[in-house]
Amino acid sequence: MEKYQKILAIVDPTTDDQKALKRAIELAQKTNASITAFLSIYDFSYEMTTMLSGDEREAMRQSVINDRKQWLESLLAELDLSGLSVDCKVIWHNRPFEQIISQVLNHGFDIVIKGTHQHDKLKSVIFTPTDWHLLRKCPCPVLLVKEHLWPDNGNILAAINIGSEEEEHKALNDKITAEAKQLTKVMNANLHLVNSFPGTPVNIAIEIPEFNANDYNLSMLKHHQGVMLEHASAFNVPEENTHIKEGLPEDVIQSVAEEIDAELVILGTVGRTGISAALIGNTAEHVIDRLNCDVLALKPDGYISPLDIEK
Predict the structure, then answer these.
(1) pTM (two decimals)
(2) Per-residue exposure over 42-78, b if at least 16 CB sit within 10 Å of its own CB, e if not
(3) What is the 3-state secondary structure (H, E, C) of 107-159?
(4) Integer Cα distance of 239 and 228 in angstroms
(5) Residue range 97-126: average pLDDT?
(6) Quick check: 54 pLDDT over 60?
(7) Could you tell me the domains of the chain?
């Protein structure tokens, strides 16, 4: 897949099981991409040693960086990297997401791959502030890795907003589907499309007694099915691989992903800030939180990261 030629794999300093790095290797073996294993570290105690000079504090920081780099190199030495170009980079910084996005902006990475944390007692995934910042602000695709394997002939689920008339959403639907289509070739997988639609507003059903909720829902379903089939046809996706259900996006996407045992869900994040950030907060983040497979989050074309601003 030509577009994923430079992979930034985020290393987790708290574990030896580097899910993101392993997934990056798996993808690079299929695409012949280069990988940079990236680790951002910080320890506030090193900044508090006021008895030391600036040079001495810098020497201490450099010592920690060197130690972490050796650890990272030993991790890489245990992995099968035959035929792959892999380098590693360790940076001292207290806001990892800023450094990750800076790497993307300055070195042209095509995709960021990051592992997620499992909460042992709750059996759910815990997302860190770094995860959310990347989803909102990283200009390139972000792949969040969970425990699900990528088997041959598996299923990729592209979540689209087929009911929207907004050009931004239509363009993002096309981008999501095209990206999913390319990944099915790389991963030898099957492509499925999913879309949800809202049911009858409760207040209408109450305030207008003669309003027929069943007819309304059926009409909504038929409309979304028609638009979905038109979209699927443009990308040669068979009708049996399209899924339209009534409900909240997070419920529908989770339900279909489990039903087809998806290995990867691809969705769009508008990535806005301020009040309109609710668009991602209400949909994409809730969806990602509940899935047990990898998630690839894409930005619309023309998206500019808030960090990509000349100071």
Answers:
(1) 0.87
(2) eeeeeeeeeeeeeeebeebbeeeeeebeebbeebbee
(3) HCCCEEEEECEEECCCCEEECCHHHHHHHHHCCCCEEEECCCCCCCCCEEEEE
(4) 9
(5) 81
(6) yes
(7) 1-147 (3.40.50.12370), 148-311 (3.40.50.12370)
